Amino acid sequence: MEHAYAQFLHLLAEHAGWALAVVFLAAFLEAVAVVGTFVPGSTILFVAGALVGTGALNLGWLFVCAIAGAVCGDGISYWIGHRYRDTIACRWPFSTHPSILEGGRQYFAKHGALSVVTARFFAPLRAIVPVVAGMLGMTPARFYTMNVVSALLWALAHILPGVVFGASIELAGAVSFRLVTVMAMLIVALWVSVRVVRVVLDHARNWANASRAALMQWARRQEGKIGHVVLRMFDPAHPVMGSLFALSVLVVLAAAIFFSVFAGVVSGAPLVQVDLSAYRYLQSIRSPWADAFFSVLATLGTVPTLATLVATTTLLMAYERRWRTIAYWLTAVVFSQMLIIVIQLSVLRVAPGHAGSDIYTFPSNHVAATVTIYGFLAFLLTRRVGRFQGVAVTVVSTGIIVAVAFAGLYLGRFALSDALGGAAFAVVWVAIAGVFAVWKHPDPPPSRPHLPAVVLAMIGLSVAWQASSSVSSNAASETPPSVPIAVTEAKWADSVWKTFPCYRSDMVGDRREPITVQWASDPSQLAAQLESRGWTEGTRLTTRSLLSLVSPDVSAMSLPVLPKLNNGIPSTLVFTRSHDMRDERDVLRFWPTGYAVEGHDGNPPAPIWLGSLVHERLLRPSWPFNILRPDKRMEPLITERGQPAGWRALEVSRDTGCNGVPVNLLSSDVRQPPAAANKK
């Protein structure tokens, strides 16, 4: 099987036509009725786009194959609907699941020919709407016009992000790895937020429908006033009651999240350690281009932008004479900010890395104000537009809130728990304001389909106006990098080494492998000394090394060495050493300490690095995914491989080691002063 798999990979590398055929088939099957529900065509297109970014596929031919497959698949579905229009409802699976066909009918009746374009982006409707279009007699010319347009937009939306991702991976290195990391974190945060909102809303809707049906059955059996009130509250003829119920549940959930985070911050739970680790990690991947990008992104939540939105919404509500809605919203904004100030003064929590500051950050009033204003604005807009526009407004608002929160985390303005607490606190007030607004104005407001575009344009103008000044102010406010604390070699060997941790800690503070090496050296000298002892620089994250993760015949040394975190700081220097067994390797990772050993003869101080040495073994049973697992076997750091190098070790004895683990103090200085030599 491994041999066949290797041959398959070789064919894909040598013949790109196979990959294009797979793309055509995936796009075709995803658009075919019933079958398309189980085909991950969107994922395959993204992966193919990544191969374009690495130079393995041609972008033009990829677009042709994807569009052709999508058009042919929709055409088959349209023909099935047209050919069996009178009997398709009686055929499987529509006979056993009539709701599938009925959902397509309702969507087509509401959006008409445009549904052929928009339905392709929704998995449940993608393969059903063309069938309905054929059943209801849509002309072939009109259908195929919309079909080609939808296929083009669908291909662009899935292939181009993959191209960008593949190009970023191809450029992986010291700087581009930061690019990939920041992009991946932002994309994952947005994707997770949208998915969580969608899953929660779907489950809440299903649960609400089932609960409403059960309550109405119970209420019909009651003869008193309680039964009459329950029937009126949950009657489908009064959908506003369902909105009130959903908003009330949202208040309870958001309040539970806020008090959970609040308890964790006050008690010093592992969440606080996660705050510190996340701060250190984000600070370690900062770069000038990312600072400028997130400074601009942060303007989405600045006072001028939020004030513009408040003024716009206030004018809109005044035009509609909804004075109480204005009062609810402004009360939610002002009163929530006042309560946040009270909580901040009681908790007295400052952001990580800003000890001694008089600016308290839990819960974050910046995130709270952003959630309150964008959240209530989204609530008002979704009541004034159609379903499709309402979904777009919700997604865009969620994305803006996540972007503002992540920008603040990246720039170190508040911690993760500050953002979570501020967001949950604001959701409570938004939901309460929404309850009062719906209660006092249950009738649907006038439709304003162009209002979201106007609001988006005003946000864009506000961001453009503040962009340059935001970048300049952020650059001016940046603190200069801290200078390492210089100590003498004797002081390091006598006491300073004991102040460093004995074990590597993960994001939540749990102890991992022991830190057995402390090395005072310039990075280039450290690398040279290790190379003379048989060590090499760890394999970097590139397209080739990523593909080796699924290769059936690969050595442990060919697999990428992933940087591990120590209290949120990724390993800066990584080295590997091979073994006689090609499935094994040693990995040596180093982290900075903020200390340095004073140099001799006018040489600059040598930074002190903390290093952990692990032995990794390749697990073949995990194929087709090659996974390296560390084991308890500990190889000696210094062996007889290679030629002796000009360096010496100050070894701390096992009895006085770090929690029973011996620590090697190493230096690349060749002088060996008598006061510090061979300390035991």
Structural summary, described in words:
By secondary structure, this protein is of the alpha+beta class. The protein folds into 3 domains: 12-170, no CATH class; 243-471; 485-667, no CATH class. Helices cover 57% and strands 10% of the residues. The chain contains 23 helices and 13 strands. Strands 1, 4, 5, 8, 9, 10, 11, 12 and 13 form a 9-stranded mixed sheet that branches. A two-stranded antiparallel sheet has the order 2-3. A two-stranded antiparallel ribbon has the order 6-7. Strand 8 (573-578) and strand 9 form a beta hairpin. Helix 4 (59-83) runs antiparallel to helix 9, helix 12 runs antiparallel to helix 19 (416-440) and helix 14 (288-298) packs across helix 18 (387-410). The model is unreliable at 1-13, 171-179, 638-647 and 672-680 (pLDDT under 50). Residues 497-618 form the LssY-like C-terminal domain. One of its GO terms (cellular component) is plasma membrane. It comes from Trinickia violacea. Residues 39-162 form the VTT domain.
